[in-house]
Design goal:
Layout: H1 4-24, H2 29-35, E1 37-41, H3 63-66, H4 80-89, E2 94-100, H5 126-136, E3 140-146, H6 171-189, E4 193-197, H7 206-219, E5 224-225, E6 261-265, H8 281-293, E7 297-302, H9 312-328, E8 336-337, E9 346-351, E10 354-359, E11 366-370, E12 377-382, E13 389-392, E14 396-400, E15 411-417
Parallel strand pairs: 1-2, 1-7, 2-3, 3-4, 4-5, 6-7
Antiparallel strand pairs: 8-9, 9-10, 10-15, 11-14, 12-15, 13-14
The chain binds ligand FHN.
Length: 429
């Protein structure tokens, strides 16, 4: 006979186990921000046309044509390990894939929509293969999921360019489908983060965002969620929904208080576009340096081609960034931004008693930076150990660099100082 005492004991055990689990839930945000560098991948049937994912539906590509592209989608050269290796070769630490973008096509075998990769000629679980490759190569894995789905009849907006095409929809049913898809994605692929998108359209409310955020955390309290479920996108406050800010196609401002990640394309378009203009190596490296110097992460986007490969020129550019990172990664990973507010001439990151001055432009071989009150600079060197002359005054610090600099894209001077650089106040240059 089960006694009352036994039941109470069991209940107390369950409650204490739950509270222990909550207390031991590690806040992954500091670890995530230490990674500094991620790869965004926008991929889907739209690559068959080479136009922009989602946005070219009902524009460059007629809706019926766009929604039939999946019948031609067969990226037979897709190799998840190759994508992950290209990211690793760049020094990238996490990868985020568009599992479902605004066109509603799902890159995994979901039970909640027939509009998925298993009903294309490809018939392979792209999300699952990527998750596996990331695990094998120790790459953090993240999933992008839109909250606006112009293909789903329960979502009222079917055509962002022509409201006459919109439908009544059923947001309650739409959210139920979304929850089903999210549960599949979280339980099957165990993503470190969910990158939501599409918060801006009228049918979606802040309350809907909060509901999905809470649902996501109820499945995995540790999973990180960006700030694009809610309507407030420029700050983390009582109104906003999400764990970190996501400035787009621009480098975020120096922010020592709120975690943020800039998402920026290596080319112009998010999805693959033939002969799209690609950023120079200098622009790629300085974008990464300025993002880290702002105390943020960079989510750098590539758009693989219709055959499943990332363009060779993009793979090569990623490798070139990786070659720079082989020397300078200690000035990026695990650092904090500042203490100097970044500008066009220089930016700074810091770790322990070191300040890394990223030099983008210098007047001849000297660069002047603001004074560091009550700080003694014990030593200044380049990463190749060459000495840098330092003249410290109450007004400023003048650094005189060797005539021949080792790097063409971002030369970094290491200032060894007499205290913890991470405790210095932010200084406007
Ligand atoms: O509409 C999307 C766009 O296609 C792309 O996915 C970017 C990536 O951050 N997010 C939205 C635009 O803000």
């Amino acid at each position: 006979m089960v006694t009352k005492r036994y039941l109470i004991t069991c209940l107390l055990f369950i409650l204490s186990a739950q509270s222990f689990a909550q207390q031991t839930q590690k806040n992954l945000m500091p670890e995530f921000m230490d990674q500094r560098f991620g790869m965004f991948v926008h991929f889907g049937p739209v690559t068959v046309r080479g136009t922009e994912i989602g946005w070219s539906r009902n524009k460059e590509v007629a809706q019926a044509d766009y929604d039939s592209l999946y019948k031609e989608f067969n990226p037979v050269l897709f190799n998840a390990d190759a994508w992950v290796k290209a990211a690793k070769d760049a020094g990238i630490k996490y990868l985020v894939i568009t599992a479902k973008h605004h066109d509603g096509f799902c890159l995994w075998p979901t039970k909640f929509s027939d509009y998925n990769v298993m009903n294309s000629p490809f018939k392979r679980d792209i999300v699952g293969e990527l998750a596996k490759a990331c695990k094998k190569q120790r790459m953090i894995f993240g999933i992008y999921c839109t909250v606006l789905d112009w293909h789903d009849k329960n979502y009222p907006i079917q055509n962002p360019y022509d409201s006459t095409k919109n439908v009544k929809g059923d947001i309650t049913a739409f959210k139920a489908t979304m929850k089903g898809e999210l549960k599949e994605l979280i339980t099957k692929y165990d993503p470190y983060l969910l990158w939501f998108d599409g918060y801006w359209e009228k049918p979606w409310t802040n309350a809907d965002g909060r509901e999905i955020y809470d649902y996501t955390k109820s499945i995995n309290p540790q999973i990180l969620v960006n700030n694009r479920l809610g309507k407030v996108s420029e700050a983390l406050n009582n109104e906003s929904v999400g764990d970190y800010l996501t400035p787009e196609q621009r480098i975020g401002q120096l922010n020592m208080n709120e975690p943020w990640e800039s998402c920026i394309t290596i080319c112009q378009q998010w999805a693959w576009k033939p002969n799209d203009q690609m950023k120079s190596l200098k622009e790629c490296i300085q974008t990464l340096a300025k993002t880290a110097a702002g105390n943020g992460n960079l989510l750098f986007n590539v758009g693989p081609m219709m055959d499943g490969r990332i363009e060779a020129r993009q793979v090569f550019r990623l490798k070139e960034i990786g070659d720079w990172m082989k020397t300078y990664s200690s000035s990026i990973y695990n650092t904090k931004g500042g203490p100097f507010v970044p500008n066009d001439n220089f930016a700074s990151t810091r770790k322990g008693n070191k300040i890394y001055i990223h030099i983008f432009k210098s007047a001849g071989n000297t660069i002047t930076i603001p004074a560091l009150p009550n700080v003694v600079i014990n030593k200044a060197t380049l990463f190749n150990s060459e000495k840098v002359e330092v003249k410290q005054s109450g007004k400023n610090i003048q650094l005189t660099l060797p005539d021949k600099l080792p790097d063409d894209n971002d030369n970094v001077v290491i200032l060894d100082i007499n205290q913890d650089a991470e405790k210095l106040p932010v200084i406007k240059a």
